[in-house]
Design brief:
This protein folds into two domains: 96 residues; 108 residues, Ribonuclease H-like superfamily/Ribonuclease H (Nucleotidyltransferase, domain 5). Helix content is 48%, strand content 14%. The longest helix is centred in the N-terminal third of the chain and has 21 residues. It has a five-stranded mixed sheet with strand order 3-2-1-4-5, with helices on both faces. It is of the alpha/beta class and 240 residues long.
């Protein structure tokens, strides 16, 4: 494990600043964060697993590590994300927060690479537009977008097209969206053991971490090394 991780002296400045206040070995923090977003584990599972290694870490401490570290990992990942295709498939899946359903909007390209995602409290035109603007800002404009029968997505795209010189082709064809609907399963499988989220912002950060690890596993990180890195090594490389 130690060979795959960086040292505190080689950390990116913003990550080093956060870790300065976290008084645990670097490899323990990174391992717990990666395991939590990569596998179907609860926080108490990680507490028990660390205890078996004679490391005393409370599950609430692991939760704080995840909330502090994931946004920094995602920020670095965005700089090294591989380009995506121009044919997008967009769909929503439901995530429960404090007993209420919220909406995780996701987009993948034709080969199934994740384009972008946005966790939203409401299913409305303004929220749909925020997603499309975020995705285009990060990945460039698509040639076509395939959506389901969502009125919010269609209205948002029509409004954006009215302001564009080159409109985006909009398709509402259910069978073409099977690829993104199948891709939802990896995210839902990971969130199921969590039982429920109690806070919207915490849910948003944790979902970002799950999406990040999902993209890494799909080979969406650009790196200059000649030898291929494992998903774990690619995750740890984001801190340096």
């Amino acid at each position: 494990m130690k060979k795959t991780m960086t040292t505190r002296s080689t950390l990116a400045p913003d990550i080093a600043k956060v870790l300065k206040r976290l008084h645990y070995p670097l490899e323990v923090i990174l391992l717990c964060v990666r395991w939590y977003v990569a596998y179907s584990l609860r926080l108490r599972n990680l507490e028990e697993m660390m205890a078996e290694r004679d490391i005393c870490v409370d599950h609430s401490t692991v939760h704080r590590w995840v909330i502090k570290m994931v946004p920094l990992f995602e920020k670095t990942f965005r700089k090294h994300k591989r380009p995506v295709g121009k044919s997008w498939r967009v769909d929503e899946t439901y995530i429960k927060v404090k007993g209420s359903w919220k909406y995780l909007c996701r987009a993948v390209d034709k080969p199934g690479h994740t384009i972008d995602f946005l966790f939203r409290a409401k299913r409305e035109k303004a929220a749909a537009r925020r997603f499309f603007e975020k995705a285009i800002g990060q990945n460039g404009s698509p040639d076509s977008v395939t959506i389901d029968k969502s009125g919010a997505s269609l209205t948002a795209l029509n409004a954006m097209n009215s302001e564009r010189e080159t409109p985006i082709k909009v398709r509402q064809t259910k069978y073409l969206n099977n690829i993104v609907e199948q891709d939802h399963r990896a995210i839902k499988r990971r969130t199921r053991p969590m039982l429920r989220f109690r806070d919207f912002n915490c849910a948003r950060v944790i979902l970002s971490g799950i999406e990040l690890m999902h993209m890494i596993k799909k080979g969406q990180v650009k790196y200059s090394g000649r030898t291929s890195l494992s998903a774990a090594q690619q995750f740890y490389s984001l801190v340096s």
